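To whoever picks this up:

The parser on our side crashed when reading a file containing two proteins. I've narrowed it down to the boundary between the first structure block and the second sequence. Both blocks are reproduced below exactly, byte for byte. First block:
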Amino acid sequence: MLSISDSITKNGRKKVQVLWELKATKIDDNTTLYTNEIHATATPEMFEYLKEHNINLADAAASRQAASDAHNHEETPNFAKSIENKALTGQYNQPF
């Protein structure tokens, strides 16, 4: 999925382009490997923000990577459990 999403900064929300890749790979008849990858690209709005705040792209990318990794580690198990529940019961898990 390709989207324009909010990136939360200390000075408010700015837009980034995000490519989400969700993959399910069969391991065996009872096991599937689920992966969730995120690729973010700065938008013109984000480049302007970085320029206005004297933030270099490498530092911004490192910060974005850390935030994305934390989010991915938190959410991926929830996505996987919901997909598993759908396969076993026909129902997705309800959001909290």
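<<boundary where parser fails>>
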Amino acid sequence: MDTDVQSFVVAHLRRRPAVVETGGFVVGIDPGTTSPYLNYATPLPGARPTARDVAALVAAFRERGLTPRLEFAPDAAPGVEPALREAGFATEAVHEYLVCAPDTFTPPPASAPLARTPSTDAEYAAVDAALSEAFGGGFAPSAEGAARLRRVQEGGGAVRFVRAPDGGCAGAATCSAPAEGTAEAAGVGTRPAFRGRGVAGAVTAAVTGALLARGARSVWLEYSGEGSRRVYERVGYRPQGTRLYLVLPD
């Protein structure tokens, strides 16, 4: 599964508005933001970069005013981590990822909150604002963020949300369009006032079911804690591997 996930990330980054390929790496760039979480690189499966390859990769980031950063499954490219460490890259995070397949997927119970697909600009803006609040303000809600969510939905992925009593968004999740037979669910978040009500499970199941119904062989995601892991396991996600996040300090 590591190679499938790594191949997916390569294909996913190649969909970005701007792409740089150098020395066995693919850099996905979103010109609308300098966020390192939207501008990052990943190696091709099996890549064995030289010091010159890594220097060219760093230059591709620096000349655009971006932080050199990578996300990848190390077991799919064992030669990459040592080369990056030698160049000074440090660990930002190590995340286990979970995978859901058609034979493990469990739809939500009938009592679960109703997950909807946003359709209007106001609904996409509400989803963007809710996810900003859910993740502690790590990013500010914006017109660009709402537009990015719409592109996910209209580009073959999925965005689902649960409506709050005031008409806004209680929580939401997204899932990329599939590539290499798999798709990534991400951005699963619930506003603090609505946690513990089944919102996260409902939206996770909704985006997962949508992509599996379209023919994806699997959907994968990363989790941030044991509480979220239990939510995902109830939907049918199972442990499969590890992803490594490396960054080059200034």
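After patching the parser it read the second block fine. The first helix runs from residue 2 to 13. The longest strand covers residues 90-100.
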